[in-house]
Structures are given as C-alpha cells and as structure tokens.
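Issue 218. Parser rejects a valid record. Input:
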Amino acid sequence: MTSAMGVPQPVIVSARLDSPLSRWLWLVKWVLAIPHYIVLAFLWIAFLVVSVIAFFAILFTERYPRALFDFNLGVLRWSWRVSYYAYGALGTDRYPPFSLGPEPDYPARLDIAYPQRLSRGLVLVKWWLLAIPHYIVIGFFTGAPHGGWWGGGLTGVLALIAVVTLAFTEKYPRDLFDLIIGLNRWVLRVAAYSSLMTDAYPPFRLDMGGDERPETVQPSA
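Output the parser choked on:
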C-alpha cells in the first residue's frame, strides 16, 4: 500500500478471513494459545536485547545487521499470527505455527522491507520522542501504553463483538473485520518504526481491509 504522497509503505500487513469459522472455538483459544504466549515471552525478551544491539549498530554503521533484522521480523510475524488467531482478531481457526519464518500460507502475514541504510540521527529519537503521538493512539487500540500486546483495548472489544455475532449468525461481520485489521496494521507499522526497522514514519491513517498490494514492499525473506 502506498502513502498519500505515493511513497511505498515498507510494512505490509495482510490477513484473510477464514470461512467457515467455528461458532464456539473462540471461547477456549486463550487456553490453546498458552504455549505460544510462553514462547513469545522469551522471544520478546530477546527482541528487546536485539533491538538494543541494533541501536548501536545503526548509530555507528547506519545499518541494521541483517541477521538481527530477520530475527526481530520473525518475532513480529509470530506475534501477529498468534494475535490473529486469538483475541487480536479471531479471524482464523487455523493454529499458528511455531515459526519465525514468513509462513506464506498462513492467513495472517507480515513483511517489512529491509533498509539498506538508516539515519544515525533518527535512531536517537524515533523510538521514544517521535513515536509518542502514535503510542497514545495505539494505546487506545490495544489497552497497552506502547501497543506491546495485541488483543486488548478497542481491538479486543471489536473482535469479541465480531465472534459473538458469529456465534448467533454464523457470519463474521466483514466491516468489523476490515476495521480490526486496520487497527492491527497501524499497531504493526508503529512497532516496526519504534523497533528501528524503518525510518519511514507511520501514517496517521486507518488503512482498513485484509489486503495490501505486495508490489509496494520488497520481501525481506
């Protein structure tokens, strides 16, 4: 998806609403997802450590080491798949893979274009000062100050409304799905920016719907 100025977005978030969906499986997904939550807790500790290392690498070399970039992208991908399965969207009943890879067949996908060069100056301020307006917005979306976990706040409420509707009508409301994915897309764009993975400032825009045009980003893996 391109920005209003015609500049390609480096962060591509896509999702496919599976059909049919179980009318009642969502009641126990919090239990089924526990193994993922445990693994992700450790992965996010590693993510923070890697981000600190990347900070100094960018500061001195203007480059995000590719192996570190791929690892952090993998953590974001894994988190997005679990969130999509569980209470960040509840858009699929397909159990998420335990994988840091792209998993192109899974209904929730994320890619971030690898930057050949990053600004030394921006690395000092973008993850805290410049991102503060976005933190305020996505804190409302997710119920977390920095949008650190998907599935709470407005996004979680909307997902719950969607599956309650599903339980009684056997249909997940498409308009709600588009809005939920738009909220998650905003969060993931900010996560990529604040994690130093791109210098492209996230737009203050709700890009709704499950699809983003793949030609706007060079796949990183």
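Fixed in the parser; the record now loads. The first strand starts at residue 11 and ends at 15.
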